[in-house]
Amino acid sequence: MRSRPMRVLAIAATAMFVAAACGPGATSSPTGPGPTGTATQQPSAPAATFALPSFSPAALRWYCCLGTGEDPTQVPTEEEVAASFGQAFPGSSLKFEAITYDSARATLSTQIAGGNAPDIVGPAGIGGLAAFDGQWLDLAPYITSSHYDLSQYDQAAVDFYKGPAGQIGIPFAVYPSMVWYKKGMFDEISLAEPPHKYGDKYTMPDGSQADWNYDTVRQIAMLLTVDSTGKDATEAGFDPDHIVQYGFEPQRDDLRGLGAYWGAGSLVGPDGKTVVIPDAWKAAWTFFYKGMWTDHFIMTGPVYESDEFNGGGYAFFSGNVAMSENFLWTTYGVADAGTDWDLAAIPSYNGKVTSPLNADTFAVLKASKNPDAAFAALLHVIDTSADKLLQLYGGMPARPERQDAFFEQLGKSEGFPTAVDWQVAKDSVAYADNPNFEAAMPKYNETLVILGKYNSRWTTTPGLDLNAEFEALRAEIQAAWDS
């Protein structure tokens, strides 16, 4: 996904209006430790009552930021949540430590290697967790002993954090992906809007019904791509060097993510050490490349980075893109695109829909010297303090019963359309990519650098032999894994 500093910029724009849950029914603070040192939620909380295992008073550390959380406007609330743990559990404390995103992975690696590991870490996305694969505590025994009710979450969200190492996280903040589109651009040429409901057909200009897939996207995106003389990309005389409006923009931050919109997968082969590029990803990358250099409905790299089209970090924000695939955190800057945007379903590939998912959670390190207390701190942060932190981070609550309140508040954002079909976002979660594109792989950070190099090459260089490029990419990553 895009570097988290961009996510941090969302806070200034969203913290004032995003509320994870409001009014009656929000999770209340736990009671203080009982006679045995356990804690339970008050009966008014929407989650099932849970009872923490007994633990001795401990001085714990909360490490941030493998995801969002470093912005100075966020820190006071995070420190308040940390302090409230000591109030709920007298004799214990939780110290909040904010490390800038750019330094967070290296600093955490150093702390773990030096025997100075923190206890809980977050918010962390899948990529942040994957960078420390094998070092997270399996929470399953603690979830069982505390009777913490995972059924309050969609099973797909729970499984998102389940793997060979066990249940390393509990669902917290979710960022599904959708198609963001400009209604006015469709209306201007009398095109039907993209379908909002998964499984619905698209009405083509001739009235025929077509599957909502990437071939359909290509056809209408070329109609929606316009040069400075008003010609679209299907017309003779269209000038690709002077495009003023583009038809489609994929989520291009990570080649793995771009591929995942066409099918869930991984670069890691069955043996865990051989690089295998999924066929669906090759198809996605081919679509991306030809969309830039042959059909011209997708921006090349230089255009994407230009001041004219890269408004606020994403091209859709410029108001000059008809359709874009991106995650829910797009809300941080989407008001710049105008007030005529809405949400639509992700297209299918080979008859299957995949909606890549970003998500943030908190995890406990195996190296924590107080795992029982650390689990108590984790629940204090993601459950008892969920209202404050979800509001702060701008993430859709993983609990379905809190999502309507979240979107009701989100829809009141300054500069937003009067009506947005937020149901699309909720429906998209069911099509999440599993395995997630940010999942663990060998030489994680080194591999990301290689992927970034090829992304840059493809977006700046026409006329490439893509099959040769795919093989060169695979071989370079394999060499890195073997070294």
List the helices and strands and how they pair.
Layout: H1 4-14, E1 59-64, H2 75-88, E2 93-98, H3 101-113, E3 120-124, H4 126-130, H5 140-146, H6 155-159, E4 162-163, E5 166-167, E6 173-175, E7 177-182, H7 183-188, E8 202-203, E9 209-210, H8 214-223, E10 226-227, E11 243-249, H9 255-260, H10 279-293, H11 301-304, E12 321-327, E13 341-344, E14 348-349, E15 352-353, E16 358-364, H12 371-384, H13 386-393, E17 396-397, H14 400-410, H15 423-428, H16 444-460, H17 466-482
Parallel strand pairs: 1-2, 1-3, 11-12
Antiparallel strand pairs: 3-16, 4-5, 6-16, 6-17, 7-12, 7-13, 8-9, 10-11, 14-15
Helix pairs in contact: 16-17
How is this structure best described in words?
The chain is built from 17 helices and 17 strands. The chain is α+β, with helices and mostly antiparallel strands. It has two domains: 4-175 and 358-410, 3-Layer(aba) Sandwich (D-Maltodextrin-Binding Protein, domain 2), CATH 3.40.190; 177-356 and 434-482, Periplasmic binding protein-like II (D-Maltodextrin-Binding Protein, domain 2, 3-Layer(aba) Sandwich). The strands form five sheets. It has a six-stranded mixed β-sheet with strand order 2-1-3-16-6-17, sandwiched between helices. Strands 10-11-12-7-13 form a five-stranded mixed β-sheet. α16 packs antiparallel against α17. The chain is globular.
State the helicity in percent bands. Answer: 25-40%
Helical region count? 17
Structural class assignment:
alpha+beta
Q: How would a textbook summarize the main sheet?
A: 6 strands, mixed
Q: What's the CATH class label of the largest domain? A: Alpha Beta
Please state the overall shape, judged from the principal axes of the Cα atoms: globular
Number of strands: 17
User: Rg to the nearest angstrom?
Assistant: 23 Å
* Whole-number mean pLDDT: 88
**How many structural domains can be distinguished in the coordinates?**
2
- Name the assembly state: single chain
User: Which range does the strand content fall in?
Assistant: 5-15%
What ranges have pLDDT less than 50 throughout 5 or more consecutive residues? 1-48
CATH topology of the largest domain: D-Maltodextrin-Binding Protein, domain 2
Within CATH, the superfamily of the largest domain carries the name Periplasmic binding protein-like II
* Beginning-to-end CA distance, first to last residue: 26 Å
Q: What's the CATH architecture of the largest domain?
A: 3-Layer(aba) Sandwich
Q: Looking across the biggest beta sheet, what order are the strands in?
A: 2-1-3-16-6-17
